[in-house]
Every structure is written in C-alpha cells, then in structure tokens.
Amino acid sequence: MKNRALSIRAKLMILFSLTILFPVLIIAYVLPAYYTKLITTETEKLTESTLVGLTSNIQYYLDELERVTTIPYNYNEVMYALKIRSAGIYKQSDSYTKYKADYALYNTLPGVLENMHKEILGTLLLPLDGSIFYKDSRSTLYKARTDYPYQEQDWYQEAVKANGKATFVGVHPQDYLDIDPVQSVFSVARLIRDMDSRKPIAVILSDADTVVIDRIVRQLISNDSVVVITDINGQLVYTSSDVPSETLKELSASSSAVNYRGEPYVQVSKTVPSSSWKVTSLIPQSRFTDKVRWMHTTGLIFASGGLILTLFLFLAYSRKLLTPFREMIQVMRHVQRGDMTKRVAIHGKDEVAELGSALNRMIRRLDDMVINEYRAKLKQQDAEMQALQSQIKPHFLYNTLSGFIGLNRRRDHDTLDRAIRSLSGLLRYILSSDTCITLAEEFEIIRKYADLQSMRFQDRLSFHFELDNALEGLRIPKLLLQPLVENSVVHGFEPCEHPCLIEVVASVQRLDGSLRAVIVVKDNGVGFEPTAIKNSDRVGMRNVDERLALFCKGISDFNIQSAPGKGTAITITIDLHEEGLPNEHHCG
C-alpha cells in the first residue's frame, strides 16, 4: 500500500493544534498569576526610575531660579543701589549717586538677566522703599503693576521669614504684571540682605513657566498615569489632571493606594531635595488587571486567529491575482483621458504578464499614431497661416506704394525719400520669418506704418496709441492689427472730407467674470454697413478674423461696429489666465 501524503486539511489541523491549542493551555492557566506579579513589580520600578529623572529635571529649573535670585549679590553696584534705596537716602543723594544707583538697577541688572532660559519668564525686584523693578525675559513690553499689594502676598512674607534663604513658591497667577491674560507660573523668592549690616534691603522673585513642569511630565509619564506635585505643606503645586480634594488628603496620609475618580490607583512618590516638593505618580490598577484579563482571553483570540488567518491568506491571494487587472483598468482610464505616459508594471512571466505586455505595446503604438496625427495637423495649420500672412504682405505693400505715387505726383520729394527709408526699415521687420510676436512688437509695426501715412497725409490724419504694460508680452499672430489700421486709412479716412483720428488701444478688462485682453482699433471716418463686409474687398478684416480663429481657437472674439458716416470700431477680445499676465499659450 502506497504511503499517502497528508491532506491540506490534516496539515491545517496539525498547524492549528501547534499554534493555538497548546499555547492556550499554557497562557490560560500558568502565565496569568506570574505575569500579574511581574508587570506590577516592573511597572513600579520603572515608574520610580522615571520619577528620579522627573525630580532631577524639576530640581534643575528650581536651581536655575534660585541662582537668579542670588545674582544681585554678585554685583556691588547693584547691592549699593538697593542699600541706599532701602535706607531712604536715595532722594537726598547727589545727582552722581542717583545716576550710579539708577544705572545699576536699570542697566547693569537687566543686562545680567538678559540671557536667561526661555522658560524663566522674568525677575521682580522689590527694594524696601516701595520701588519696583521688573525684567521680562520674553519682551520689554510687560511691566509690573505699581498698585499691587506686594507686601501682603504669601510669597513675600515667606521670603521675609526665610531671612535670606530661598523660598519655593508653587503655581500662582502672575497677576502683579500688567498683562492680559494672566499667566500661571512657579517661582523662587528670596530676601536680599546687606552684605555688611545684614539688614534686609529688597525681595527678589524669579518666575518660570508652568509649561516646563508640564512638558517634563508629558515626556516621562504615560498618558493613563496622573502626576501630582505638592509642597512641604501638602498644598498642590501642579497636577497633570484635576485631582479631587479627597485624593489629596489620601496622598498626605502616604497610603500605598488611593482612590481617584472612583477607581483604585497605586502611588509612587519621590521628593525634590531643595524644595521638599513631593512628586507622586498615580498608576491605575486597571493597567495590571486589564493585562491579566487579556491573558485569559488569549485562548479565544488564538482560536479566532485561525479563521482570520485563513481569510487573510485568501484575501492576499485574490489581491495578488486581481491587482494586475485593476492596474490595467487604471492605465486604460489614463489613456482614455489622453495620458499616454502610463504603463502596466510587468511582474513574472505568466499569462497576466503577457496580457500586460500586449497592453503596453498597444499604448505605445497608439501614442505614435496620435503624435503623427498631431504633427500633421500642426503642419497643415502652419501652412494655412503662411498662406494668410502671404495675403497681407502684398496687400500692405500695394496700399503703401499707392501712397508713394501720391507723394511723387505732388512732387514732395523730401517726404517721399523719408517714406521710402521708413518703408525699407518696416519691410525688414515685417518680412522676418517669425509668425508669432508680442503685442508690444505689433504696436511698433503699426507705429512705423502710422509714420508713413502721416508723411503722406500730414495734418489731415492723426494717430493715438495706448498699450497696457501688463499686455506687452502677450503673444499674437504677426501683422494682426496692421491690416485693421490700414483698412481704417484706406476705407475710412481716404474717402472722408474731414480730418480723421485713428486710435489703437489695448487694455486688460474683466468681462463676465473672466480676465481678458481687449484690443480696439477705432476711427471716425466714413464708416460702412457691417452686413456688407462679406461681399466687400476688405481682405484685411477677413484675414484677421481667420487668423484669430486659427491661432486662438476658442479663446478669442472678433467684433465689428460701424455705421455710414459714424466711423468704425473693431474689437478683439482674448481670454487671459487669472494667475498671471500675459498668457503665453494664446499663440502658436
């Protein structure tokens, strides 16, 4: 009898037994008790170690504050100024003595206190004569209030009682400053005594931001713990969360467990050496019980894990199978929107990979066909533009030479000579190979043309040009405006008996909520009936309209307003981008 290989079902059953049943028996009955004791002990040790670091950091800032309160002792001129103020002889002193004392208190001492830690907010110095000096580390805008009862404050009285030793002040409002809103700080106060007579001469108070304590606590203590800091008298200095008064009483009793918000908490405490502040961390007992409870439910988790694992494997395989097809669909959507740069990533050499390769080849061929078609369309459009522009050049030259004939008949040879020279320069500009120029360059062309006509007709014809600076770089088809000006001269002015004015104005306007370039060519000549324009010989106007349709398809408008005897106004409107001028994509 041939040996039969184990079925997949049998293999799964063995795997289930090894990975689920045996671990459940061990975890459910042996590990919970041991694990509970272990995590409780380790958590308390870890919390105790954390509190050591926390108290050290708090001690550091308290030491910094205490050091600030001793700074006046390091400067004899400051001590001398405080001494004469506290002795009441400042006002009777001579000008030099006053200057020396004021310089020490208003310049020397603030300069020493300038480079404090950013958490040390400021230092308040109160000489016994009632004067007030405050140095703010944040700015020079905050000042101490002159109407504040300083000597009635607990911290002031405690500093006097301490007789020169540092007094640590818990969290209190900084209401002695002219600041809104009032900020909470913790401080160190000290009575300053004369080095010689040992008499009190001032009280100094250095403030630190409570953010220091909060930041230290947040960095070192977990979120579910509560940190409470109390002073030597059991008064609250800081708490990371609101603590009821009943809980504070239990902390003062130094019980090993306290009740906080109806739940039991274990407390671990450390004392800050210099201030005798007590730092207590309250750890919820639910942290331990929850972990034990998790141990009991691990069996159920492992049991359901087999089903989840099976489902995961199925989903992973189906995803591996379907992902290439989804990728192909996404690529085809990009192709449908005109993006021919996307390709299918090929993995492996199976049938799906072959299908992806075929799709990539099809996209490449389709891209080549579109590019070739686009290039052919551009060449056709360029040919049409060249044909239209070739109509303009001989038409313009014919009309200009006709003007030269008139000058010759009048025997105005000097003017004719200047006109021929101007035409030579203008033709060099017009006959260049560029098909697309800026609006500023087009204005230069029509200005040269206007000079030629002004030589010919002198005072009977005048021109006015106005170009918005924002439109100087707007690109348009070459010789777009010149035929319109030429039509105004030939068909509007020449048949007219009175002097004429031809205006060319280009400006930026907001029409129907969109930003547009508006170009107007206007004359006060004989005018005509616009409905007859299609049957007339005005090649220039039809040419301009057709060139606009080719160059600025969908973003331009060409409008003619005219009436017999009332002149003609031709308006060209081109859409612009909102984010900036000019729009470089209007041409070509």
TrEMBL record:
Question: What does the UniProt entry say about where the protein is found?
Answer: Cell membrane
Any Pfam family: HAMP
Which InterPro entries does this UniProt record tie to the protein? Bact_2-comp_sensor_kinase, dCache_1, HAMP_dom, HATPase_C_sf, Sig_transdc_His_kin_internal
Respond yes or no to whether keyword Transmembrane is given for this record: yes
Report the residue ranges that make up the HAMP domain in this protein.
319-371
Highest taxon, organism lineage? Bacteria
Q: CDD domains under this entry?
A: HAMP
- This chain's protein is named Histidine kinase
**GO-annotated cellular components:** plasma membrane
* Membrane-spanning segments: 12-35, 294-317
User: Is Transmembrane there in the keyword field?
Assistant: yes
- This protein's species is Paenibacillus azoreducens
Recall the GO molecular function terms of this protein's record.
phosphorelay sensor kinase activity
Q: How does it sit in the membrane?
A: Multi-pass membrane protein
Alphabetically sorted, this entry's keywords are:
Cell membrane, Kinase, Membrane, Phosphoprotein, Transferase, Transmembrane, Transmembrane helix
The UniProt entry, under SUPFAM superfamilies, shows: ATPase domain of HSP90 chaperone/DNA topoisomerase II/histidine kinase (SSF55874), HAMP domain-like (SSF158472)
